[in-house]
Amino acid sequence: MCKIADGIILLLLGMCSVSDLKKKTLPFLLLVAFSVTVAIFVLLDGAGNVRLRVGGAIIGILLLIVSKCTKESIGYGDSWIILLLGIYLGYLRILRVLFAASLFAGIVSVFFLWKCGWKKTATLPFVPFLSLSYLGVVIL
To answer: What is the pLDDT of residues 72-131, one digit of tens each?
Structure first.
């Protein structure tokens, strides 16, 4: 995909991150805009990387199922973003994004548990970590 598309996806991720940080929710219209944008970029890319995209979609679908089964321990919005990124990036790159985002979230969680006295039941918005990880994967 081209750098302009990567930048637009990053912009949408940034908007989702701000909403996730402020409200711990993702606006429906923003998710629709993100979905349409990814669909357009995938269509413009043509038939290339179909197996990678299907693999990325499967990862996102599995996380949506986990969201449903765990009563949103992983939010539906987070899972939907992961599904869209999986379709856009393919399964290899979305796995890198998920690994890095989980690592960052884990480090931040341990810091807040240790230094700020958070309880184990505290929650963190995940989309900002996805955004940072996406940026790292796209740059590298």
So the answer is: 888 899 999 999 999 999 999 999 999 999 999 999 988 888 878 777 777 889 999 999
Per-residue HEC secondary structure of 61-76 comes to: HHHHHHHHHCCCCCCH
Q: What is the DSSP string of the chain?
A: --HHHHHHHHHHHHHHHHHHHHHSS--HHHHHHHHHHHHHHHHHHTTTTHHHHHHHHHHHHHHHHHHHHTTSSS-HHHHHHHHHHHHHH-HHHHHHHHHHHHHHHHHHHHHHHHHS---TT----SHHHHHHHHHHHHH-
What is the tally of structural domains in the chain? 1
The whole-number pLDDT of residue 72 equals 86
Q: CB of 41 within 8 A of CB of 5? A: yes
Structural domain harbouring 77: 3-139
pTM: 0.92
Sign for the pseudo-dihedral over CA of 40, 64, 58, 13: positive
